[in-house]
Write a structure and sequence with these properties.
Radius of gyration of chain A: 20 Å
Number of strands of chain A: 2
Order of helices and strands of chain A: HHHEEHHHH
Largest interface: A-B, 59 and 68 residues
Strand content of chain A: under 5%
Distance between the termini of chain A: 22 Å
Helix content of chain A: 40-55%
Strand order of the largest sheet of chain A: 1-2
Oligomer: homodimer
Shape of chain A: elongated
Chain lengths: ~170, ~170
DNA sequence: GACATAACCAACCGCAGTGGTAGGATATGG
DNA sequence: CCATATCCTACCACTGCGGTTGGTTATGTC
């Protein structure tokens, strides 16, 4: 797995906040109830978003959270990074020195180590996809799809899921 | 961390095999010594590559491993998938049904869930970067950067990368 | 001022996966 | 027969993840 549930919960939380008007704060409990997530755990998640300056908060009765900036000014890269830390495909990307034999990568950005060239490309692919998606986009998407369709949505689209990427090698 | 050390070790192993001539098999021990990796653990790693049909093997004395196909015909996506399993940004991508409350994603390829839209894009970014990189590219890269001066004249290099491999075999 | 609400904070804990070891069984060349 | 080397299974210490517990502060309302 690439991202932990912190990212899933945190992104959902941000989308929820994006759906609300920024005038009045939304309590965590409301979000936890709406999404069916454990409140106490959400507290830890939202703490990361707050420390990253992505949401603001008000304590006390009728307190809660709201977006620090308009949703179309928030790239998902910021959100995911606040929740998961820096995007590192491989161990040596986070401690790129002082590491044991696992990694002989030199801190020269891909030169000198063929595997680091690969991981650098992977990282770039991830970051680009996260940079080019804004929170507003996801909020707008959730508006379209969350309205209960009275019309019978054509259940099976011709474009089938891409979730199974290729064939699974490890069989029996 | 996105990828575990299995991926790092496995990719290095594949690069090593790509550097060798495919006529004669290379023993795991030679690779383990060259890269400074635990032999017993490498066995588990290479087993995955073998089961995926990426390398072939010969048992017994003078046995070893070699690439099943030419290096320019092996996309790194195949290698990484054999080592790490399917690329799944989020839990629900691997068990996209029968899952608990964590994920309310419906199996409809991104429709109905804004977060899944995001994860699908991330997955696509990763897969694209892995698909467009071939093993031959990494092998060629390692040739350029790992080129050890054939003349031992100025052989005073203090800490030459531990990835200095094949050139270190005049003893045989 | 009491009280409910709700953000904030710091431990703690079970569980599963990672990284690696141990010890062998099997096949092959000399 | 023996050294080499693949192949296979079980085992284990450690870490991080997902989550809970139990508070403390701060703030609106009655």
């Amino acid at each position: 797995m690439i991202f932990s549930s912190k990212a899933e919960y945190g992104v959902r939380l941000m989308i929820e906040l994006g759906r609300q008007s920024p005038e009045q704060p939304t309590s965590l409990k409301a979000i936890a109830d709406a999404e069916g997530l454990p409140l106490a755990y959400l507290e830890q998640v939202v703490a990361r978003l707050r420390k990253a300056g992505l949401v603001m908060s008000a304590r006390g009765a009728h307190g809660g959270y709201w977006l620090a900036r308009p949703a179309d000014d928030i790239a998902m890269h910021e959100v995911v990074q606040a929740l998961e830390g820096a995007i590192a495909p491989m161990e040596c990307f986070v401690h790129d020195h002082t590491e044991r034999v696992l990694c002989s990568h030199e801190p020269d950005a891909g030169r000198g180590c063929a595997t680091k060239l690969l991981w650098t490309r992977v990282q770039a692919g991830i970051v680009r996809s996260l940079q080019t998606t804004t929170l507003a986009e996801l909020v707008e998407f959730s508006h379209r799809t969350n309205r209960v369709p009275a019309t019978p949505a054509g259940a099976q689209a011709p474009v089938v899921s891409t979730t199974a990427v290729g064939a699974q090698a490890p069989a029996a």
